[in-house]
UniProtKB/TrEMBL annotation:
PANTHER family xrefs: VIRGINIAMYCIN B LYASE (PTHR40274)
Stretch list, region Disordered: 1-99
Source lineage: Bacteria, Pseudomonadati, Myxococcota, Polyangia, Nannocystales
Species of provenance: Plesiocystis pacifica SIR-1
Protein name: Uncharacterized protein
Stretches with biased composition (Low complexity): 22-52
Biased composition (Acidic residues): 69-79
Taxonomy, superkingdom: Bacteria
InterPro entries reported in the protein's UniProt record: N2O_reductase_N, Vgb, WD40/YVTN_repeat-like_dom_sf
Amino acid sequence: MAVLAGLLVGGCGDAANPGADEVGASEVSGSDSESSSGTSAGSETDTSATTEAETETRGTETSATTETETAEGDSESEDTGTKFDMGAPPDAPPPDCYAEPLDVPSYIWIANTTDSTLSKINTETLEEEARYRTREDGMGNPSRTSVNLVGDVVVANRRGGITKVTARTDNCDPERNGVPGLQTSTGKDDVLPWGEDDCVAWHAPIPHIANRPVAWDFGELDAETCEITNSRVWTAGSDGVGANAHLYILDGETGEQLVDQHLLYFSHGSLGPYGAAFDPEQNFWMISMGFGATLARIDGESLAFDGWVAPSNVVAYGFTVDSYGRPWIADSGGDGVTLVFDPETETFLSVPEPGFGFGMGESSDGRMWQAASPPNAGLRAYDLDTLELVAEVPLPLFQSRGVGVDRDGYVWLVEVGPRAFRVDPSDASYQVYDGLDEAYTYSDLTGAALQLAAGYVAG
């Protein structure tokens, strides 16, 4: 199978499971594709991008080494009452940072397209606790959201720009807007003017007409304290049809641009790169939208690029990467086939029970939940190991989009409109939050996908 491989050129800056059992799944090879020179790229080659700064290893555990001195004594001597100095007791073993779910606030973050805002909804109470502007001019047209491993969020404005919001108000900077004390939104109808909300941490302009995919990486884990720091934001932007997309990596604390690389071999339509997610090896995956979409993998350290062309019978739309490291691609208008890409064999598997789908989210019990459109509107779930359809939940909606799983295991589905559904997968019951404004979000809107990819217990 041919792959696209090459450099990410320009700018500066810095699968674990071999695939699921193919029960009920059929293999579909990706199409051959041409490189920018017009010749077929018939072999896979990882080529590292050249950057001005050495790339740091992300998501690795570091721990301090402690030496303990032990005094020598004669074990065969009689007890004379002398007490030997046996040294300090050994240090306790470091904690298992992955044993319990992360201590992050349980929110779902949903973008309101028409008024260029971001809603912060408590997944336990179904209360919208805050709403924030995503761009100064109110014309951002926001969509994708991504939550990091400490609970903070970024939202991508489709017309350009990434905005970060701090989840915990205790962590917001009360001096950010220049006025003493904390000023921040307290609900749906309390949206502060641009620049006045202390919990809007930063905004990073992205100089393109299309800016959709966004995802946090794992950051760096301190194995002694389990503290996570130095998380970065990965996104991409483009300007119309072609191969003009750029990869951007932003500093998670400041929004400073660390990397700007031209994705020379990423061919796309007018909407540019469409969805993105990280795998457990911390590779960044992206997909374009449409028939014969480009699937790309960018190495999280070297930025080497590999690409494949999806089967032409699928309109690639919904996108995620499961905890086995396999990208999932939902079809929004082709033959109604969901694809699962196996990076080990470089093949696309077609799951059974076809049907048009949109956003997807994995639950910690080994299921992939997918938003389904009419005539079978609602949710459907696939078993990660067998790829078989194992659950369907009908819901009274017309246009489904985003799917996410919260800390308590509830599955959320966001429609294009005012509603978000919280579904109990144990009995298919649901509750509704009805207060959004032309919501449009499909991505890792609760942070569960990133937690599972990084090896944490989600929920």
